[in-house]
Amino acid sequence: xxxxxxxxxxxxxxxxxxxxxxxxxxxxxxxxxxxxxxxxxxxxxxxxxxxxxxxxxxxxxxxxxxxxxxxxxxxxxxxxxxxxxxxxxxxxxxxxxxxxxxxxxxxxxxxxxxxxxxxxxxxxxxxxxxxxxxxxxxxxxxxxxxxxxxxxxxxxxxxxxxxxxxxxxxxxxxxxxxxxxxxxxxxxxxxxxxxxxxxxxxxxxxxxxxxxxxxxxxxxxxxxxxxxxxxxxxxxxxxxxxxxxxxxxxxxxxxxxxxxxxxxxxx
Length: 267
Ligand SMILES: Nc1ncnc2c1ncn2[C@@H]1O[C@H](COP(=O)(O)OP(=O)(O)OP(=O)(O)O)[C@@H](O)[C@H]1O
Prior knowledge:
It is a single chain. By secondary structure, the chain is an alpha/beta fold. 37% of the residues lie in helices and 24% in strands. It has a domain at 1-81 and 194-250: Rossmann fold (3-Layer(aba) Sandwich). The protein has helices at 43-50, 73-81, 98-109, 114-127, 143-154, 173-190, 201-207, 225-229, 234-240, 257-260, 263-266; strands at 3-14, 17-28, 32-37, 58-63, 66-67, 83-86, 161-165, 193-197, 210-215, 218-223. α4 packs across α5 (143-154). The mean pLDDT is 90. Adenosine-5'-triphosphate is lined by residues 14, 19, 37, 39-45.
């Protein structure tokens, strides 16, 4: 099967509030696929549905041909072992060393002997350029380095699927570029599939094979970064060219400013 993850006719609502409706997405094996969209458009919700943390009201999410069903906790546990996740603000354990942070999922999910854990952790830290920082505490490293440790931890179990929620948020431009390249390199070295949720057009377009644009719970455009750069779609143009005006409203919907300031009454 060419797709590692398939989403079909997916509907999700929080109570009466529809977040995703009729979603159809493919995540081909070996590829880096980006999911972009305005704040609150439902990007993180998609990752949580794939990870089985929440359940949809309709439709399916399948990973490696198997439906994700949070009610089947035994199957979900097995499926989650194939997934690595780097969550928004995914913090390191501050009281553990860099080494122990990366060792954590290996100790939690495997019964590997200590010398093998040591070699695996050092290999992952080497891949992100931090083998020599293994004994430091998170408080002794920079924000960019901490993000790389979190990357090493997310791939500790050699996942088939790696999900990143805002991996570039809060990083300086150099660390952002380093992190983006690592996302691509780790994906290719592990032969995995990556899903990257991000607002950062520049870094994301540099590393993604395919980009989905989400707005109000629906896919409004998708294609390669090149296709998206030259797209005429007003939503994509607004996003890619960071225009303040366009179909994505700046203001949370509700009463107008004139109404709030009672300007109508004074006329
Ligand atoms: N537990 C919850 N209960 C109710 N509503 C929620 C809950 N979690 C998220 N939402 C709402 O669901 C919508 C989609 O949230 P989601 O986190 O998926 O958006 P997002 O696209 O990832 O946004 P951002 O880029 O700002 O992180 C938002 O409007 C949010 O307020």
